[in-house]
Amino acid sequence: MFDSLSDKLDKAFHVLKGHGQITEVNVAETLKEVRRALVDADVNFKIAKNFTNTVKEKAIGQNVLKSLKPNQLMVKIVKDELTDLMGGDAEGVDLSGSPSVILMSGLQGSGKTTFSGKLANFLKTKKTRKPLLVACDVYRPAAIDQLHVVGEQINVEVFSNKEEKDPVKIAQGAIAHAKQNGHNVVILDTAGRLAIDEQMMNEISDIHKTIQPNETLFVVDAMTGQDAVNTAKAFNDVLDFDGVILTKLDGDTRGGAAISIKSVVNKPIKFIGTGEKMDAVDVFYPSRMADRILG
Ligand code: GDP
User: Fold this and answer.
1) 3-state SS assignment for residue 87
2) Nearest residue by C-alpha to atom 9 in ligand 1
3) Ligand 1 neighbour 118 (Cβ under 6 A)
4) Are 147 and 135 in contact (CB under 8 A)?
5) Is 221 helix (H, G, I), strand (E, B) or coil?
6) Whose CA is closest to 211, among 236, 190, 234, 232?
7) φ, ψ dihedrals at 290, nearest 5°
8) What's the N-to-C CA distance of the chain in angstroms?
9) Is residue 108 within 6 Å of ligand 1 at its C-beta?
10) Which of 73, 94, 136, 150 has the greatest count of CB atoms below 10 A from its CB?
């Protein structure tokens, strides 16, 4: 469905034949192709532009190695740069608390409930971890039911209180329950809205300030594409989150949202969601993601 970047660069690079070096003049068309490829992969336009400027600085003056064609060299520079950009320490999730509290944030439909289940399921396999899932969505009873369904699937207890309308109190109740019942990880699944609004941000900010979780994760649908930048920034401004979970990478998106988010908030992408099932989760590998974005 997509032309790979190498194919596009092959076309753009015919001008470089016979030249031994990448120069500002002969690289212009190629950089345009790189930019187009990134925007096609849903990277935010401004970020794609900044990125190609960086690549340009790195590329100019480089000798075209005998072993590599100019387009291959360019793909290598672009890939290394992308990998660097998306890299950084993704040192897992902080499980040092007793219990360790993990707060999930993100828009409705981003995959918070599903990822909460996946994380609980993953931690459960480590014999020393006993997770508790907590339904902090006080607006949608269906969301609470959904978390119970997830909990049953993976055999993890779910804490909820449909009578309580204050998510902070639910979270506090859940932590007390966890302490009494030997749960050493508490995963707070919070309410999300379809778009960012002040009430939602105030609510999650209150939970964050009062509970002071060990780890705050921002869950984002990889198919959000260009919008991912605004959403990530809005959540990061309020929560200063620790890491990003990029979901729905099993879809046909190239996943350029990863670059946009990393450029804007500079937080590590920790895990990716690759399906609806509870085991469809993987650690984030920047170089694999760079390959996917470049095609
Ligand atoms: P929440 O509103 O943020 O809690 O989002 P949900 O966890 O309810 O997910 C919204 C929809 O996306 C559900 O239909 C999930 O099954 C689906 N979903 C979540 N993660 C993934 C994923 O990694 N891949 C796919 N294909 N679907 C996902």
Assistant:
1) coil
2) 111
3) no
4) yes
5) strand
6) 190
7) -60, -40
8) 10
9) yes
10) 136
